[in-house]
Amino acid sequence: MTSSYKIKKYLLLFAMALLFLQISNGQQIKIDSIGTQINQLRSEINFTPNDTTYINLLNALGNEIRFYKADSLLHLSKQAFKYSNSTSYKLGEANALMGLGDYYSDKGDHSTAISNYKKALDLSLKGNYTQLVLTARNKLSGEYNLKGDYAKALSGHLENIELAEQTNSLLMLSITNENIANLYTSQKDYKQALEFYKKVKKINEKLRSDIFSAETMSNMASLYADMGELEYAMFNVNSSISVFEKNKILDWLAYAYGTKGKIYLKKQKLDWALYWYKQSEMLHTKLQDERGEIELLNGMAETYLGLEKYNKSQEYALKAFHISKKINFIEGIQKCAKTLYKIDKNKENFASALKYHEIYQKMTDTLSRNENKKSLTMLKTKLAHDKQKRELIQENEKALAQQRNYVYTALGILIVFLTITLMVKRNERIQRNLNTELKTKTQDLENNEKELTENNLTKDKLFSIIGHDLRGPIGAFQGLLKLFKDNEIDQNEFLNFIPKLRMDIDHISFTLNNLLTWGQTQMNGAVTKQESIALENLVLENINLLSEIAENKNIKLVNKISANTLTWSDRNQIDIVIRNLISNALKFTPKHGIVTIEAVEKNEHWLISVRDTGVGMNKATIASIFEKNSNITTYGTNNEKGTGLGLSLCKEMVENNKGTIWVTSDLRIGSCFYFTLQKSKKIYSQTA
After folding, report:
1. How far apart are CA 96 and CA 55, in angstroms?
2. In this structure, how many other beta carbons lie within 10 angstroms of the beta carbon of residue 547?
3. Would the pTM of this model clear 0.70, i.e. be above it?
């Protein structure tokens, strides 16, 4: 370590120490301010603890000291609940119950936390406190997520989104969408998580809050670090840190410092990783956030392990392990057990290493089962939610139709008293209405029957693909792990299977993405939202995403789309079309081939083509590949396998955007897929 490096590090340490004092003082000033107001109220001659202002201050103080003095939070919440209950102050009761829920949540007592959050939600609903309903349901859904009841978690978040949209509550829209992003992050569906984070960023722009934006950026930094996008991660975490330091937000700053340590750890810059972890550790001395502390401690253990300071590494890993067990945090137990296994293995404590490896494997199996169940549960919950919404709309329409019938009947009675001639006309009108109503009901029955048939076909195809295309690779993966666990193959043999496993997992990921998108379109869940998009950016993103597949087969990807190729289309749908077409081209092109993407400007539209030098197709295959119920699954030149959904999904997405898609192909020469998109409707003014 050079002297200039040492000087720089010491200066940073000094600056951080000063910042730590400023932040601690700033937080204490806020807590002291609320405490002063409480003391002033108590000193008044006519003071009564049942005063609503006093109760609100107790709840506010409890919320501020949640991560600093947990026992005080419990005491203040109990007091606030007692005084609120004695005067039937429901707003105070609800806030106090949420404070109690926070306390038990931080202690890992999910059942008690859920009970308190439910009571708070019931009081909020009865009192019609809209913002409190949103807050209580958000906390309840978060606790269900921690408990592992993902269906209830997602259902609660979806209800919150509807209520937040109805009441134009941008803040809760931001919070709820970010919580859904965190759900996807926990099941390592990074792409879906990133989509929700992008929604949150747009909402935060409307809120114009630097703090909310910083919180989102710190979460995105952690996500980018897990994805290996370390430059994006560093940009986001640095941006968030400057906001947290400026506003003296201690708990979020501790999290951001830890995330920065995590980024440096992944960069293998261990000294800097340790430096930022220690800054986070320094802040945690002022906090009582055990769940947040686990990742910090395990990160420091991994850093010391990399520095070969095994005793220090073991000290931090054991501390994190015991906290994880205390609050029953399965993911924390898994990560800490893995770190302890590595430490004991390096120290040649093989018996202890084996013990922690077994714990790690057990927790991994548990998480794996939970995550698989979680994916299906989230999909089922979303479909059930949409179905419930449609049924509610139908009931409202039925009620309106009934009201109209009452009106018609009343008018008919009035007409009877006018003249016999008018009565005849009324009867004719009623007959026409009845015929129309009969036709409408008949049409509704036919539509319902058709929808039921399509839903059954969708369900059959969904489970057929899950059983045929996903169970096989997953079963092979489980079998290989069993062979390795039973010592029927050694480590070197197991490592030889890694490239194959990587291809299988990529196939599973790609299949699930198409499957979920297709399932959503079949359940009337996809809405086309057209906007002006630059096609070049979408193509570049997908080339980067699929570049590794192309490199493995030595296939050259050529992008001939210019920067001014602006289309009027749905970004997400066209992204799926481009990805499927490029993926298919790579699949059916042998090694050393070429895949070319090009766009030609026409009068009213763009003509986009994806051309390959692959195996080509015969006329029978060309005639059936775009059919909606087609399930053609063909192996690629390297035995790659698809779901048979891709091209029918592409056709549906292109047509949703008012385009057409077709293909030309010659056996052993190659194929070229064409599709059209409208030109951008955006009008650009010219400067004189």
Report:
1. 9
2. 13
3. no
